Every structure is written in C-alpha cells, then in structure tokens.
Amino acid sequence: MIRNQIHKVLSTFQSCGVHALLMGGQACVFYGAAEFSRDTDFAIATDPQNMGRIDTALAELKATVIAVPPFSRDHLQRGHAIHFRCHHPEAAGLRVDIMSRMRGVAPFPELWQRRTTLNGAEGTIYELMALSDLVLAKKTQRDKDWPMIRRLIEADHAACEGEPVLEQSRFWLRECRTPELLIDLVRQFPEVAKDLAAGVRPLLWAALDGDVTTIEAALAEEEWMERVADRIYWNPLRRELEQMRHASRPN
After folding, report:
1. What's this model's pTM, rounded to 2 decimal places?
2. Of the candidates 193, 190, 173, 171, which has an alpha carbon nearest to the alpha carbon of residue 181?
3. For residue 109, how many C-alpha atoms fall within 13 Å in the half-sphere facing its CB?
4. Separation CA 197–CA 220 (nearest Å)
5. In a domain? residue 240
6. Of 82, 104, 137, which closes a domain?
7. Burial bucket for residue 108 (CB in 10 Å: 0-12, 13-18, 19+)
8. Structural domain tally of the chain?
9. 39 forms bridges with which residues in the sheet?
10. Is there a single domain that holds both residue 13 and residue 130?
11. Per-residue pLDDT reduced to its tens digit, 150-181
C-alpha cells in the first residue's frame, strides 16, 4: 500500500497537470520489487509550461530546496538532481527529488510515451517510468541498485502469464542478472538469445552453454563497466556541486 505522504505528492502533481514519472524505490514497489525508501524520485519534463506546473505543485506541497543546486531548468537539463523537503501537513518531512536528464536514459518525451499508467483505488493516476527505462536508470555506482535490477527482472518474469511477446523476451535477455534464470530464458528463446549474443550481450553465449561460472564473471564485469561509466558521467557534475556549495558559504 502506498504511504499517505507519497499519495499526497502524486495527487498534487496530478491535480496541477505536472508531467512527471515516478521512478526510484517507490516505482520499484509498484513493479513488485519492494524497496524501502524515504524519498520520492521523479523524472520531469523541463519545457516552460511544465516547469510552471511543477512550481505550482511544489508551492502547494510547501516544498523547499534542501541542498544545492537551486531549482532551475538549466540545472535539470545539465543532469543535476534537485532535492526538496515537503512541509505540507499531509506530506510533512517527505523528501522529493526531481531529475530530467540521466545517463543512458532516453529524453523525457520518449520516457513519457513509454510510461506505465496505473489507476489508484482512490482515483489518483500513477504515472511510472516504464520498467525498461527504470532498469537503465538503476545502472549506477550505488551498491543497492544492482540487486534491485535483478529483483525487478525476476518479478516481471514471474508476473508474466502465458507466452511473452518477443520484445518482452528480448528485454529479459538483455537485462536479466540471475544466472539460473538466464539459462532458462536462452533455452526458451534460443534464436533471440543468439541474436542478442552476437551483437548486444555476449555473455548470453555462456548462458547457452549453461556455464554458470562464466555467466557470473561476465555479470560482474558488466556491472563494473557501468559503475565506471556512471562515475565518469557524474564527476563533472559533482565538481559543479562543490563549486556551488563553496559559493553559498558565508565569507
């Protein structure tokens, strides 16, 4: 069940017409891979109209920026996250983080087209980042994100009823991080697996051979490469944040 504080944020965004996609730990809960999180993370559109709508929504939530950078379209478009703390009685203390640009993730208009829309029992519409995009957004330096990717794919596979469509099987084969499940998937979809192994994910050859040891080593290498890429991506943004923190300190 969604917490009342988070529901207040989602319903406020909805009533203000904000184009925002729930991501992070709260989105994982909806996709069946529960993660406890005190934050609520969103990807948002940064066109002037939507920036105006989110300004209205944040004002209604009595949300204030709690760290650098300040809330601006420029900072969002550069890839920074903006952090807020809500002071509205129905969402008091809840942190809301918003982003627009993320490493390896499509621009917001594409995310919006692929979004998952759920209808809450209380009438609130929940707009979630599509599972495939959420998985890409989780490929970070953070230790907690990699087990979550694994659980997200396992949960999606377990929830599938009947024969999956081709694109769903391709998604699982591209992103699955469970050796035993990968071996089952390549047996079920051998031609798709061979196609992906040849050009997208070579470790699928090891899955086709049923070689768990090689799969585990290849998964570790995949993770390491993504962590390095994420660190390289964030280094200049971190330097910018440090400069902003320094500039904000009293002389």
Report:
1. 0.92
2. 173
3. 1
4. 17
5. no
6. 137
7. buried
8. 2
9. 95
10. yes
11. 999 999 999 887 766 788 999 999 999 999 99
